Amino acid sequence: MRDALWAALKTVNDPELHRDLVSLGMIERAEVEGGVAQVKVNLTTPACPLKGQIEGDVRSAVLGVPGIQDVVVTFGAMVRTGGQPALPGVKHVLLVGSGKGGVGKSSVAVNLAAALARDGARVGLLDADVYGPSVAHMLGRSAERVTANAERKMQPLEAHGLRFLSMANLSPAGQALVWRGPMLHSAIQQFLKDAAWGDLDYLIVDLPPGTGDVQLSLTQTIQVTGAVIVTTPQDVALIDAARAVDMFRKASVPVLGVIENMSYFVAPDTGLTYDIFGRGGAQKLGGLPLLGEVPLDLEVRKDADAGAPAVLAHPDSAAAQALTGVARTLAGRVSVQALSHLPDQLPVV
Hints:
It comes from Deinococcus terrestris. By secondary structure, the protein is α/β, with parallel strands linked by helices.
């Protein structure tokens, strides 16, 4: 019966990877006792957007095996890389960029990181917007200072289940940094290579707006898994977002998709929807996948000022649910990209 069970599992495909769970090495355990099958599936990310579909497909396939009356499906997760890790212990570096300021890039980056951490991933967040750091404030840790560990490496701070570094925790509050390119490059190098990030599934990098020195330093320093572009729907934002897309492509950084922020507004008193900045403009960005539309929501701003990401403070709000969906979709795309470079048959765990 065990052979029949494994044969049934081999008919179940991962919905995103379009390969069966057995050849992908995602089945950690499959055994039958007393007519009950026990199956443990190791997902490619804790934030798998299609976990429910996988569970349903496994149950359907296994219950078709003669002699099996029930199946118990449990899940683990193992984020994989398509090659060498970007940094020691860091599996994926994901850049969050925009062509211009004011599109909510930092709040999106913070909420993506918090959503992935809440789902069980090990997440770091690097505030690379050196001139205008805001991540520490949005996480409620702007008063804390970064220290060094015994190996004289910067020790990332912790908040809401994730690790982060920001210039706001290294320089006096309100002090302007008047730095030229070489100093920015040195700072980015230190944030990446002289920090004790530990073991991370994802390091989310909140970039400054535009296409400047920080972006170039990052893409030239480490192997980046991919970038996402945050934009609002109106043409003036899309014009600059297209420039950011072009920059990443020239730097050979895969653009995993676009997030349309402030996509629409739902009036709390009437429930009517208003497209304040237009809607659907992100779909014009060179055929890039749309990772999600995030509504304009007052709670997101309030939560950011209070130092609590909206996905944690108000998880049932429309914006928080949209951001959670974006995070899971992004994690799925990272898995697809990583596993597309792996051999057809992986060893069974």
